[in-house]
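One chain given next:
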Amino acid sequence: MQKEWQITVWGVRGSAPRPEAGYLEFGGNTACISVDCGEELVVLDAGSGLSALGRSIAVGGRREGRQRIHLLLSHLHLDHVMGLFSFPPFFDPSAEIHIYAQAASLRSLEALAGPPFWPLGLSDYPATLCLHKLRADELFSIKGLKGYTMAGNHPNGSLLYRLEAESTEASEKSLTYALDCEADASVLPALTEFSHKTGLLIWDASFAPKDLRPGWGHSTWEQGIRTRKAAGAEAVLMTHYSQDYSDSFLRIQEQEAARIDSACRFAKEGMVITL
């Protein structure tokens, strides 16, 4: 397990892609972030940004030998899984792809990712696919990593993830992924504890503060800053922007947030963060 983690942003939108002029500075693809820990590649959600990640793997070849990829799905709303249908590593016989989600989500995924919705089912690809059932409040392992889950506050449910390094050399490294979660009083204390002292908190910034819609299962960048400070997290990365928010609007939000908290960043596709 390498000492540094390389975190790359591949998709930043919620609900639907927005591949249009005026939306591409921050990015038009839906949720997908990769965490390259050296031996293992962990991918958080499989939105339309997953396709670009897959193409980069296919062209560049991440490492010699067998490619092992771990896809952690927060839930099955289409903006979080639409990239699965065009993920090049599925067609690579040397690839070993592990998909992690709640048991009910995995059953639904096997129905969704196949006929009549798509020509190929999960069992039809040349790659080796392994499905892993998770529950909320569960500890799981990926080589060199400890993973933790928490239930998100979102319609139809969601899973939040925390990753920590197992090795003593990188023992303080951690990342918390908290998309598709409405940070109201019912979940905020547990979410703050879940994010305690994390190196990077990846936050659901679907709404600008003035646009928050209670009951929709999403949060604001302002709530993310408050949670970062309460949790003692080193930094917070805003993402999962509303498809309605243009680059010019997000620039204004980014500037307002930076004035409040210098440890706050707004995700842009192609952004790389070293942890």
